[in-house]
Specification:
Elements lengths: L1 H34 L2 H7 L8 H23 L6 H22 L6 H20 L11
Helix pairs in contact: 1-3, 1-5, 3-4, 4-5
Length: 140
């Protein structure tokens, strides 16, 4: 019983670490896309100068929604089951971003999309497996 509890705590720490890293990254990118000018963004991400500014802002909104969806349900103790669903949304967002970059011949840009999708996949799998952060078999 003790080993399963320790494993559950370890997984919970790993999942929270992944959630914080991914959420922080999405919070940063979403904020940058929403609050910096396109001229400033072009120096960091050239694609932002070649698409509609509304599209750039929309991607920023999606980034922020993903960031909030990974953290707020647990912090507010309201519907933590939304966390893995947010992670699935992030996976879909990263697939769309990867397709976007590949279609533009920017295959070197998809590394971040892949890394974020892997983090989100780990979070979705782990939180569906133990949504409350505790093993279903062990009640603390």
């Amino acid at each position: 019983m003790k080993k399963q509890t320790t494993t559950s705590k370890t997984w919970n720490i790993l999942l929270w670490t992944a959630q914080i890293i991914l959420s922080g990254s999405l919070l940063w990118s979403g904020s940058v896309k929403l609050f910096q000018s396109i001229e400033e963004l072009k120096t960091m991400w050239p694609w932002t100068g070649e698409v509609s500014p509304k599209f750039v802002k929309l991607t920023g909104v999606f980034d922020l929604l993903g960031a909030f969806g990974l953290i707020l349900p647990a912090l507010l103790r309201f519907k933590p089951v939304l966390i893995p669903w947010s992670a699935i949304g992030i996976i879909l967002l990263m697939i769309a971003g990867g397709v976007f970059h590949v279609s533009r011949g920017e295959t070197e840009q998809i590394g971040v999309n892949i890394m974020f999708a892997v983090f989100a996949g780990l979070i979705a799998w782990g939180r569906f497996k133990m949504p409350s952060g505790k093993s279903k078999k062990v009640r603390l």
